[in-house]
Amino acid sequence: MATTRVTFGEWLPDQPGVIGALTTAKNCYPRAVGYGPFPEEVNYSGDASEDLNNVVAAKSTAGGTSIFAASISKLYKLNGTTLTFDNVSGTTYSNAERFRFTQFGNRLIAASETNTLQGYDLTSATTFSDLAVDAPKAKYVTVVRDFVVTGFQTAYPFRVQWSGINNETTWTASGTTQADFQDIPDGGVVQGVTGGEFGIVLLERGLVRMSYVGTPLIFQFDNISRNLGCYEPNSVIQYQGITYFLGDDGFYACNGQQVESIGAEKINRYFFNSLREADIAKMSTALDPSKSLVLWGYPTVDATYRLLVYHVPTKRWSFVETGVDRIASSSTPGVTLEGLDNYSASIDALATPLDSRVWFGGKLQLAGVTARKIITFSGSPKTAQIDTSDIETQNNQSMITLIKPLVDNGSASVAIDSRLTLDEQTSFPAVTAASSENRVGVRSYGRYHRVRTQPSGNNWSSAIGMDIEIQAAGTR
Questions:
Q1: Per the count of CB atoms within 10 A, which of 163, 287, 345, 452 is most buried?
Q2: Given strand 218-226, what is the order of strands in its sheet?
């Protein structure tokens, strides 16, 4: 009887199951070999006075890390000891659909289309206030070199405007301060702006690079792409100098010179087929830098909120089912042992392990919001599910009699579905847990076999694949 090793390769839902790719990679994340566990979401804060729509962390030069959150009319600062929210709004904001944040020196800047740019000095402020009397009302904000740069104003949706050099409080156009603006007439309205050594302006039907050239032009604007633009503003994020976004036909990455499709013939069709288009504005994106992940959250047609997970080093994907409303990138304030009392009745009852980066100040982490709370993804592993492609032999029919899951620091439960023809619907039975010898005995006859694996154990680290015993079988 032949033993065959089946390793977990790439998840490609846009491809048929017979090509060797996984048909499901759920509640896990891709690794160079196999898939790792994705943690459950855990409540991190108390309730704000309104539903939250964004979270950000800011670190001052003094070394302290603070967490801020936003709702449609308020800005909040999280008390790192009591985990309650302090209202740090400068006023009651006018229907801020979503505040977006950037940090410039010791100042956290918040942007929304309906309100003047807001600033918060991390070393001394107690509330946000207008960044400057001449600061714009802009939807997007970032930092390019030594300038604060904004995009999209209600009256000027094609406009990119920037502050004075090294001065976020000067916005009136001036050759001396180098504050100025640029209207981009072709490409549609501004959908986002990302920064760094150069800026990328994402338009509806194009991408434009803005490069600092000094006076009198200040910035030079060059087309990177025409016709290909950004479909949804809430899909834009930057990681290691690369800008990621959703285009009209799927997901892309741009390094400032070239645009690369990262989802074509992999997950693009899956995404659009599962997206609830009417609620696409609830899309969100975040980073998990500890795992080199870029994640997009979106509402689905089956009324769930799903995360698409992209592993940058391997360019592989997975997905996660979650109950959050939006995801966000954040950092952690330091928490003392006494402060842990605000998280749980006892240390033993903590949902997040004590060695998690959640408890160490200034560490980047994946976060999000659910209603009025901040959440972190720091709990025990979610129930992962990995389904293989169709396994077949050179003979028409075969029988699988034994499955040995390969899971580092854990075990697994498995199920098998076998079909004689491809037009039969797949139908998995309930999973069966592996024995103490890590074996699951089965007798499954067919031509095409799919195996479902659900890794188990609170410390499993990598689901690699399985060894199966398969033998040729004659027709009956």
A1: 163
A2: 190-194, 199-203, 206-214, 218-226
The answer to whether residues 230 and 238 touch, using CB atoms and an 8 Å cutoff, is no
Looking at the structure, do residues 219 and 116 belong to the same domain, yes or no? Answer: yes
Q: What are the tens digits of pLDDT across the range 129-181?
A: 999 999 999 999 999 999 999 999 999 999 999 999 999 999 999 999 999 99
State which amino acid sits at residue 257.
Q
296 shares its domain with 358: yes
Strand runs labelled E in 31-171: 35-37, 39-43, 54-59, 65-70, 75-78, 85-87, 100-104, 107-112, 115-121, 129-130, 140-144, 147-153, 156-162
List all residues 6 or more positions away from 287 whose beta carbon is below 8 Å from its beta carbon: 237, 239, 293, 294, 295, 329, 364, 366
Report the candidate in 100, 71, 84, 98 with the shortest Cα–Cα distance to residue 43: 84
For residues 382 and 31, give the distance between their C-alpha atoms in angstroms, rounded to a whole number. 16
Last residue of a domain, one of 355, 381, 407: 381
**Does 95 lie in the same domain as 19?**
no
Same domain, 315 and 390: no
Q: Looking at the structure, do residues 303 and 189 belong to the same domain, yes or no?
A: yes
Distances from the Cα of 174 to the Cα of 162, 171, 354, angstroms:
11, 8, 53
Q: How many domains does the chain have?
A: 2
Chosen domain end from 381, 408, 438:
381
pLDDT per residue as tens digits for the range 289-299: 999 999 999 99
